[in-house]
Amino acid sequence: MPSSSEMSSSSDSLVDSTELKNAPLRIDKDVDSVLDNGCLSIVVLGASGDLAKKKTFPALFHLFKQGFLTTNEVHIFGYARSKITDEDLRDRISSYLSPGEVSTESSESLSKFLKLIKYVSGSYDHEDGFLLLNDEISKHETTKNSQEGTSRRLFYLALPPSVYPSVSKMIRTCCMNQSHLGGWTRIVVEKPFGKDLKSSEELSAQLGELFDEPQIYRIDHYLGKELVQNLLVLRFANRFFLPLWNRDNIANIQIVFREDFGTEGRGGYFDEYGIIRDIIQNHLLQVLCLVAMEKPVSLKPEHIRDEKVKVLQSVVPIKDEDVVLGQYQGYTDDPTVSDNSNTPTFATVVMHIHNERWEGVPFILKAGKALNSKKAEIRVQFKDVPGDIFKCQKQGRNEFVIRLQPSEAMYMKLTVKKPGLNMSTIQSELDLSYSQRYQDVIIPEAYERLILDTVRGDQQHFVRRDELKAAWEIFTPLLHRIDDGEVNPISYKPGSRGPAEADELLSKAGYRQTHGYIWIPPSL
Ligand SMILES: NC(=O)C1=CN([C@@H]2O[C@H](COP(=O)(O)OP(=O)(O)OC[C@H]3O[C@@H](n4cnc5c(N)ncnc54)[C@H](OP(=O)(O)O)[C@@H]3O)[C@@H](O)[C@H]2O)C=CC1
Ligand SMILES: O=C1O[C@H](COP(=O)(O)O)[C@@H](O)[C@H](O)[C@H]1O
């Protein structure tokens, strides 16, 4: 049966907001007790937009193809202001659903999936459209589910955060699950959750007045990536990492995101946010949490998220000298970007965690657009071997690299004897490349995995409200200094490594680059 916090009806009056603000977070949901079958309505709000066509609908389609969403239970609703028909929406998204696939089987499943989609047009701040939406959902529930009288409603807000409050209010007023035998209503919200601590807290308070924490899924799609999900297993299921994963052995840790293209049609959005809000404050910081956190008591979502919050709360305030910002040349040519914009498209930030495990170990978070490559990775660099008798230090330090994308892999860079008669050393690696080791496995898209979690009611890979607050606490002072023009970006060439000053900061933080060694992903 559903938890009481997830069940409510449109006839419920909204509770006094001051009471809610002071109430403790209700995070005691017992996942096992929540309804996980019966009629499921998935509503994509902002269905006409970029995220919906590129990520949300394709993820739903993949889940459908694998049998996680079935025609006898599921209906999908697109909602937006654009006056388009069901067919228009289907046409818009079709080419993103199965690009390149031409088999009869795949075109049959595509057409079955498209038939599940209905479009409703309406505004984001008036009841009319949402009442219409509710009628459509109820019709679907009546046809699919009249016997059981249960229903599950998932609202995915693929919308600019500015409309989250009004849309959430409309859902709460007009569209809550009303079945008499249980079910649930959940909402999924996209990043960015606010622009700084204050605006994020305001947004959280507004959502918190309407929905309980177990109903809110703050998505950070990096938490759905295969190798990010592997971090806990790697760290806590392998004996040889346990004694090494600390300040005694690790010199520094880099968490890097690079893109080899610019803002590409999203300049207007990006200029308001910049690379720290777009990537570092959320995606890279979430990865940092999983790399740095202590072992959770169990795999229960609350135990894991408790440990993540502790790490965030132990981060030392960031100083200006620990930051290098960049902006690629040509960024302001985009007509939606202001000519004198000082928004960073690149940032390297050196962070420190004040606790027993990590005191003195720099965590270097780096993200940039329009760089010379596209990749995301975690690079753990170990300290030099004390009393080195092989003079191997010059060749490079041990590194453990987790390649999140592309070509998922993890490899351990180590020194070995150079094969042959001489006793000399070279750098080599122990390599676990997924394309080679797991040839028959299709790695699911992050969104696919996370949407399935929302249906299953598993919040482990979603950001809890206190986590979000702690994340904004770390970056808000720096962001305000950037917004006020006190810290400015250095110009860099598109297709480069970013500003040279960033590499200087890296070596100042203690990172030692291995010269003459490049890891090449194995080909089959
Ligand atoms: N696109 C991406 O790759 C990613 C996006 N996100 C996040 O997902 C959310 C949606 O992103 P995306 O799809 O790119 O956004 P879009 O700009 O494409 O907006 C989605 C839809 O919202 C409506 N909309 C746009 N602007 C406004 C406005 N000012 N007021 C009211 N409605 C508006 C439009 O629909 P209509 O006019 O028909 O109502 C539009 O089709 C955002 O929070 C974004 O930050 C997160 C990660 C990646
Ligand atoms: O959230 C975002 O992520 C994408 C990069 O996602 P990835 O899964 O391809 O690494 C980034 O391009 C975008 O600016 C940002 O909003």
From TrEMBL:
EC numbers for this chain: 1.1.1.49
Family: Belongs to the glucose-6-phosphate dehydrogenase family.
Organism: Zostera marina
SUPFAM superfamilies named among the record's database cross-references: Glyceraldehyde-3-phosphate dehydrogenase-like, C-terminal domain, NAD(P)-binding Rossmann-fold domains
Domain Glucose-6-phosphate dehydrogenase C-terminal, first and last residues per copy: 232-511
Pathway field: Carbohydrate degradation; pentose phosphate pathway; D-ribulose 5-phosphate from D-glucose 6-phosphate (oxidative stage): step 1/3
PANTHER family associated with the record: GLUCOSE-6-PHOSPHATE 1-DEHYDROGENASE, GLUCOSE-6-PHOSPHATE 1-DEHYDROGENASE G6PD
HAMAP family: G6PD (MF_00966)
Chain's role: Catalyzes the rate-limiting step of the oxidative pentose-phosphate pathway, which represents a route for the dissimilation of carbohydrates besides glycolysis.
Pfam families for this protein: G6PD_C (PF02781), G6PD_N (PF00479)
A Gene Ontology BP annotation from the UniProt entry: pentose-phosphate shunt, oxidative branch
Protein name: Glucose-6-phosphate 1-dehydrogenase
Catalysed reactions, as listed in the record: D-glucose 6-phosphate + NADP(+) = 6-phospho-D-glucono-1,5-lactone + NADPH + H(+)
Record-annotated Glucose-6-phosphate dehydrogenase NAD-binding domain positions: 43-230
NCBIfam families: zwf
Compartment(s): Cytoplasm
InterPro entries given in the database record: G6P_DH, G6P_DH_AS, G6P_DH_C, G6P_DH_NAD-bd, NAD(P)-bd_dom_sf
Domain of life of the native organism: Eukaryota
GO molecular function, one term: NADP binding
Keywords: Carbohydrate metabolism, Cytoplasm, Glucose metabolism, NADP, Oxidoreductase
Enzyme class: oxidoreductase
